[in-house]
Amino acid sequence: MKKIIISIFTIVLFFSCKNEPQHLLKIEGKLLPITSEITSNKNIETFVKPYRERIEKEMSNILSYTPINLTREDGELESTLGNLMADMCYQEANPIFNKKTGKNIDFALFNFGGVRASIPKGNITMQHAFNLMPFENQLVVVELSSEKIKELITYLIHKKKAHPISKQVSLVYTNNGYNFKINGKPLNDSKTYFVLTSDYLQHGGDHMDFFKNPINLYKTDYKLRNAIIDYFKETDTIKVKLDGRIRTK
Amino acid sequence: MKRRNFIQKSTAATAFLTLGGFSLQSFTNKTTKHITILHTNDVHSHIDPFPKNHFKYPNKGGIARRATLVESIRKENPNTLLLDAGDIFQGTPYFNIYGGELEFKLMSMLKYDAATIGNHDFDNGIDGLYTQLPNAKFDFLSANYNFENTILDTHIKPYKIFNKDGIKIGVFGLGIELQGLVDSANYKETRYLNPIEIAQDISRILKEDELCDLIICLSHLGYHYKFDKIDDLELASKTKNIDLIIGGHTHTFLPKPTVTKNSIGENMLVNQVGCYGINLGRIDFYFDSDKKKASKGKSIIV
Fold it and tell me: What is the ipTM of this complex?
């Protein structure tokens, strides 16, 4: 009986402790770096292994070769990697667009933020293509009025970033104005223009609002990354340079 | 709240009287409680450590190492929660090829308790996220995304309450504005609601209705912007009752958690541990039922 009484009181005591209002007395915070000094958990390692092996096999495939380092940061208003990205997407997408519509794309424009990783000098592997374009974005063509092209130019001048743009474009600007040409010709107000970009940017990504309500929108069902991979596969050695397609005077 | 205090006092008094010899001192000592919060953000499908020759993060990160660290901390203190502030997806071919399956399965093996949704978690569309949900044995929390008209409806909770050693821990999630950041075809009819208003509401519910002892916000809003956009520091200054904001999105490597003031001038913490699983954040909370000790205020050591 005594035992029972004690245990009942223990339970009461236990619950009253539990319900005691808790006051926060002390907080300690710190950063724990994950370094090679921490041993890897074996279960996790074993679980990841088959996934990793399949990826490694696929990613180590050599697609092309670059004699120089390609980055998005080697120029001020253009970059080797940006120029390459815009030019290769144009080259791969234009035949598809032409076949569908009988028309040609005028130029390609993407965003600086979308160039996700550099490619060092040497062999270009599938891994590099994935690093450069990890996203699943599709290529689209927008038909724009010359007014929208002017908005696009203002955007480029205002942002002062090396946004990838293809070689059909030449934009030279000063504090007083700009000189814009497509395929060597100035902007024609009575003409519409076909611009290649990604579905992400067309939907207003990076505030490229001039892409939002085009006269016509053509979906290519062709992923940006696949265009890049296809171009690499077709090209033995990458040739690209800074050619001043966008510059200030 | 007053009534609750009163009842507890009288129960304690009864127990004390009946047991006689039991000293009050030993009773209060036993009620010190310790909660550990571990957290990651913006891991972006980084499962393996970076290569040894990586220019920025040589041989850093790796989920198998994180697993070891988490396991040892859980052994030291079983009253531990492991949380993630979003952008689990996108960044390595593991995501491109397996669609997030491996990320969720591994996080489940590490026994993550909850995560919020980052903008990149929509990268395979809302359907892509939905498809992977069965692989996650933890909850996704988001209070300011309204998924009513989407496939995620009823699958995402605004908040969850965890009970660890009698301490009620309320955790809620907040996401960033999706328009202009995520392709609208990917988030579909997800509606974004003002995170500050939602946080004010939810933190009140967690404190006053759910009587939580500890309130944590998992935020994918970003640490701080120089332009006009809601960030974690603003969120902290315009809300009360939140003890800790675990942030993400801006890939901010804070050397230590930021101590900042809430809307009523109380100190609280905002933390973010960079990205890619390079770091694990750790915050320890110590509670005591002794009012005298608490009246001196809480100390924050960072």
Answer: 0.88
